[in-house]
């Protein structure tokens, strides 16, 4: 029966991936119904990752409030200034900007606003825009595995903490290996494709007048934008300090509760001190994208956890020897699973508990963690699509065979380097 149930899980994941967006959530919930009919125990309390969902809702609501106050616009303006400070190095500066914006905000959706700037600076320097755009998109996704307030990080911490790996060491190692991987990916991206002026597609579009030089962007920064950004930054520092203290001392609020309450309290302070329009919060792109991600995790994680919890003993026996003999296989599984699930948080919540149940060590799981970021494998993820649409030179395009697109090689290299470095570092740090 386990094979029938596994087939159901895979079929509904595939259906969800084909539907895209919140279709993944709907397909996951439908799969739970079928698993229940096939004898699996359907228990919402153990199947739904409530802490992960709560953190997504809290963080996204705060980020949307920051966007309403103009804080994100200010962040983008600062980013553009950085990118234009050394435009010839745009292929290396772009991933730095999108990586740390995502680490800071806990969501890759903030990278959307920087993509037009990256494309414009590249065009001005006669640099093929696909080079910085491809690695910038990849970095915004890989950074989710390094953000202290992302749903994926929270889910990961919940799995490895019982194995003796603390929250701050986890975050520290993740930032180092993920950032290093992205920088190596940037080196690869800087060599991809012919030079812009030699690209026949660019030449055709130039001749047709389809390539426009827009120049430096103009921003209408709201009066309280800087204050809201400072409030959010201070909150992030408080969360990190509190998490460090809770690892050593028992406090009234655990780490997950602290992240949720501090983030929402931060939004309240923005409302009281920055004249935030509450009615505008739910209209922000970050809010809509974050709520979609939460729904996806609800459906997919519930589907995966229902299957795993009902077959835990069989899974332990069948998979333990394989993964323990070839630990790198965990990273391969996570990479392809994330491409299907379209969510780092959903992939982490669904697969890391399975790895722990099979007896995989915490060090191996942390080393493999960057592999949950393979969302660029299929060129249909929103950030990927946005990068393609914003490049009017035509250099960022999908090839005839779908998989031959400019994101795949920098992305695979970034993840492979991060995982390899992770195995090296974790063998010393988490012994």
TrEMBL record:
UniProt subcellular location: Cell inner membrane
Keyword Transport appears in the UniProt entry: yes
GO CC terms of this entry: plasma membrane
UniProt keyword Electron transport present: no
Family: Belongs to the DcuA/DcuB transporter (TC 2.A.13.1) family.
PANTHER family, A to Z: ANAEROBIC C4-DICARBOXYLATE TRANSPORTER DCUB, C4-DICARBOXYLATE TRANSPORTER DCUA
Name of the protein: C4-dicarboxylate transporter DcuA
Organism: Propionibacterium australiense
